[in-house]
Amino acid sequence: MNKIIFITGSTGYIGSQLTKKIETKSTFFINKSSIKDNFYVFNNKNEKFGLSEFINKEIIVVHLATFFSKSLEDEKKIIDANINFGNLVLKNIGNLNISKSIYLNSMYKFYNDINTRELMYTKTKTEFSEIIKNHSLENNYIFEEIFLDNTFGGIDKRKKIVPLIIESLLKKEGNPINNPENKMNLMYLDDVIERIKISINSQDGGSNLFINEKSLALSSIYNFLYEFLNTKEINEEYLKFYDNEYITNSLKIDHKNINLSSIPDELINMLSI
After folding, report:
1. Is the pLDDT of residue 254 over 80?
2. How far apart are CA 9 and CA 125, in angstroms?
3. Is the pLDDT of residue 253 over 70?
């Protein structure tokens, strides 16, 4: 039986990189155009295909579609992207032979900061996790969710703290960090892509944390990049690593100590992209 991959969020930060590194002939994309009238999926040439063409195929769904914002004005966008869109996808593909669904969830739900846990973004990611989990039980397929914290690397136009720090330094706009001693767990984009590829080819399910054992203080990221821009020398003493305080015993830690040594080089690479 031929294995087909459906990907949502293929134009996003992670999805756009994943699509470059997997087999294109068996990969199809679900986007906003898919759900306007009759449900279609698209290939990499933007040709559309009805779901009837996949009736006898084994389907793996990689759900990457998401919208991140902390603004109250964006609540409708967050709900539409993180719940409503996914619900429509599940409703339409429910009759296909889905063998596995992979979902990227957020570590925000484990943060000590209650304001982060109570963000609409966090709540919607958690709610849709339960929706997919129930759908997998009802339709007898494997469900795997991968919890990520902060991803970085490559061309990153998101309003996340690392690209904001880099942008402020390049534009000489001053330090954008409000809470410099707050810590973040960084996962390099290529590592995340490789982890998803492993999941696509695996029969494993369940919930896994894909994080580094060590975290960085925001101030140390800023100081490291500031020092490099002024001296053009890599001084890793500015990067202060700390034990990750968000690791819990409720989930399996899937992988630790990933590419800590590459963080300095990859942060600097982002300055020149």
Report:
1. no
2. 14
3. no
